[in-house]
Amino acid sequence: MAHVQLSDLSKRYGVFQAVETVSMEVQSGEFLTLLGPSGCGKTTTLRMVAGLVPPTTGTVRIDGRDVTALSAAQRGIGMVFQSLALFPHMTVTENVAFGLKMRRVAPAEIARRVRSLLEIVRLAHLADRYPNQLSGGQQQRVALARALVIEPSILILDEPFGALDRKLREAMQVELRQITRDLHITALFVTHDQEEALMLSDLVAVMNQGRVEQLGTPQEVFRAPRTRFVADFMGVTNFLKGRWSGGVLLAGGGALPGPLQQVGADGSTVELAIRPEEVLLQPGAEATTGALTAAVLQAVYHGTSTSYTLRLPDGQTLMSREPNDGASGYAPLRFSAGDAVTARWRPEAVHLLQS
Amino acid sequence: MIGLMQRVSFRSLIIGSYIFLLAPLICVVVVSFNAEPVQQFPPRSWSLRWYAHALQLESFRNGAVISFALAVAAGLLATPIGVLAAIGLHRSHWRGKSALEAIFLAPLIVPGIVTGISLLIALAALDVREAPLRLLLGHTVAILPYSIRTVLASLARLDPALEEAAETLGASGLRSFRYILLPLIRPGILAGLVFGLILSFDDVSVSLFLVDARTTTLPLAIMSYLEYSFDPSIAAISSMLIAVTLGLAVLLERSFGLKRLLAG
Amino acid sequence: MSALRRSPALLMLPACLLVTGCLLLPIAYLIGLSFNPPVVGEVELTTTLTLRNYARLLDWFYASVLLKTLWVSIVTTAISAVLGIALALSLWRTPAQWRGLLVVVVLAPLLVSIVARTFGWMLLLGDAGIINNALIGLGVIREPLHMMFTQGAVIVGLVHVFLPFMVLSVLAAFDRIDPAIPEAADTLGAGPFTIFWQVILPLLNPGVAAGVTIVFSLAMSSYVTPALMGGSSAGVLTTLVYQQLVVTYDWHFGAALVAVLLATTLVILGSVLYANAVRTARWMGRR
Question: Where is each ABC transporter domain found (chain A) (predicted)?
């Protein structure tokens, strides 16, 4: 239940810059996820907060106190590791009690707190088992209980659900969210799975090549990606190049709809992103403002949706994805290759990307 | 403060252990270049005369020839037997498998000296008293487990579908062995062979009871020379042994990995 | 080949014959011989069974040799365990780029001729050896220390020869430890000392047990080091066997001594492995 602040945190291994001047703040009780592909520096950042890796520059503050020089043992954080790192030679109870024993808590108190945590994670009936006698999900919950029992100021989780199958992972995600909310814990989470990040977090920091590309709420990073990398990572497949001309954005052989704020001089180019499900198609090519004419290149049926690849008059391609709900699910596909169509979208669906 | 003292004493323990491991080998090499017949350290003057002396000694020359021939013969005998056994073990899935595996690895558990004595007595009872034959049998059985183990380790890394793929492409059993299996397990076979050569060449405990007055191996010739003489020619011959084995060790490390080779 | 393919047993036949014929049957024969009455120079197995060869072990001289052998082996094993764990720990913590080189430095001596290695110790420990010369030269001592041909010298030599085996076994156990485990203990508030004693060491148990069994059995059956570095007072079982077989031709008593060597080694190894298996079975075992 603490407030965490990272200022200009960086880590260099020889010539390799793993993390470059990362600054962010997590409010007490918030759930922040570092999201990015492997090698983007998210785990290194997390380990610097945990005290397992000393930063090259910058500071980590917990509740305003500078803890940069403190060891992991002194920071009072709870950590769930990617491999879980359960002690294989200790029972579930002994694993969970370890942190309390290190803090020289009285045995009776240890027993009470371990039991209450095992009840929270629903493992009380397996207290005397060894880790290798448990299923993946049960091991997961032991790791969580072990990290939580010491009443940490922050809970740190490093891709803890990576090894679980989809169904179990979803169940664990719900459980984790519930527990962190109930106990009002500040949590830092690392994952490369965008869906998981969106589902769990109050705040998502998308990282790439050691930098934070965008920090915002799940809706912000999903609906309004600021860079091409973030848009790509959030599953956007449409990127168009456009050019400003007198307050209007020209792209794909037409003027784009909407009140867009011109940035830069006339004639300067800009990249923009549109989610395929925002692109709506009408039969027939009718060039009006706020719509682009296009030719269908390919139609692919996906079951719950159908996607169309379109070629715009200037040669760029655009994807459209339509849901197959209701009656349309049973009707034949609306378009086939070669058809002329008109594509339009809501003005706010277009996102200008920073280069 | 306590942490610092712990760290310093741990460091000194480690450095001490490395010195302990390397000191005798270094001393042998340094002394071998001594010009004087006494074991002066460090030597006052340097020379290669003890190398010349060692190379001229009849017992060392005979021992070296016998040890070399023995190592090669035992290696060439144990390797094919070991390869076949490893492939057999790899392919069998019945319950007696682990018992067979234990039998094959028994020469690792039985001390060399016991192997040597048992073989000596059993062969004497059969009235077989030829030292070369005794030595060959003893060395072959002693190095067999290494060949089996290295080949098994190579086989364990193979995708079982490879041979099936070869078969679907029309390779018969023998041709699939020749073109698919053999090239893939060759590093393991070679590592087992080289390791077997080293073990056989350096062996004392198995040979101790199997040699006779006419047929003796190099390490035993060195040992008996040591009993009445202590000049640097021992250091010279030992240095040559060290150089050869370290060379082979580097080769093994490059090709197979010493740790993988030596660990079970 | 395709016939052999379907019957792996045939592939294993040569190896089976070799091991049975050249190792298992000879050992059985030797054990049988040890129960025959001693006749000098005789190796034929007879049906007359006796325990006379074993009864001679009750003689204090022979019993003391057995005890001495056990003592030397136990001390060697204990020292190797301590140094081996320390060395393996330092190797485990060494950055990867140096680790390979250091592992080779530790393991390469294993391949060097045992005679050469023992000779190195004779150079170092002799009355006119390198250590005595250095100490006298520095003025620390006047008279040379008598180190060679003692039990201590044998132990030093044996530790040197067998330490790499211990390092290897312990290192294998280290390789099985998830590197996040000490980190997890760290985040839970354990210091380096606690992490080593309460987390790392218990996990090393199987490796240490394997190393202990290897080193112990090798030490029990070592011949070169005690023969070259131990004096007449430091005789061990193997040097005694050599005397019986090569000098006095008492093959029956020699066979009994070998049987005792084998049995003692197997019993002690068995109990170490069993005790360790019992201790680690619960957490090592799969579901």
Answer: 4-234
Per-residue DSSP letter, C282: H
Separation of alpha carbons B107 and B116, rounded Å: 11
Domain ranges of chain C: 60-117+145-283
> Given this model, what pLDDT does residue C206 score?
87
Cβ(B147)–Cβ(B193) below 8 Å: yes
b vs e for B4-40, b when ≥16 Cβ sit within 10 Å of the residue's Cβ?
Answer: eeeeeeeeeebeebeeebebbbebbbbbbbbeeeebb
Residue C155's pLDDT is what? 95
Cβ pair C83:B17 closer than 8 A: yes
- Closest residue by Cα to residue C114 from C211, C217, C229, C214: C229
Calculate mean pLDDT across residues A158-163. 86
Superfamily of C60-117+145-283 according to CATH: MetI-like (1.10.3720.10)
List beta partners, residue A190: A34, A158
Q: Which residues in chain C (16-45) have CB-CB distances under 8 A to chain B? A: 16, 18-20, 22-27, 29-30, 33, 43-45
Tokens 């007198």, residue located: A246
CB pairs under 8 A between A and C: 75
Contact list in C for residue B109 (CB cut-off 8 A) is 217
**Cα distance from C99 to chain B (closest Cα, Å)?**
12
Beta bridge partners of A295: A311, A340
Residue C196 burial class via C-beta count within 10 angstroms: exposed 0-12, middle 13-18, buried 19 and up = middle
**Measuring CA to CA, how many Å separate A93 from each of A83, A115, A270, B206, C279?**
19, 8, 58, 52, 18
Interface residue of A13, A75, A98 to substitute, partner C, most C CBs within 10 Å? A98
A85:C181 CB<8 A: yes
Domains delineated in chain A? 4-224 (3.40.50.300), 236-352 (2.40.50.140)
pLDDT at residue C96 is higher than 50 = yes
Distance, first Cα to last Cα, chain A: 38
Residue of A nearest to C200 (CA): A87
The answer to whether A132 contacts C283, with C-beta atoms less than 8 Å apart, is: yes
Handedness of CA A224, A229, A234, A240 (dihedral sign): positive
Q: Are B113 and B209 in contact (CB under 8 A)?
A: yes
Average pLDDT over residues A4-33: 92
* Tokens encoding A323: 């849901």
For chain B, the chains sharing at least 3 beta-carbon pairs closer than 8 angstroms are C
Which secondary structure element, helix H or strand E, spans residue A272, and what is its range? strand A269-274
CA distance C55 to A280: 101
Please tell me whether the interface predicted TM-score (ipTM) of this complex is above 0.90.
no
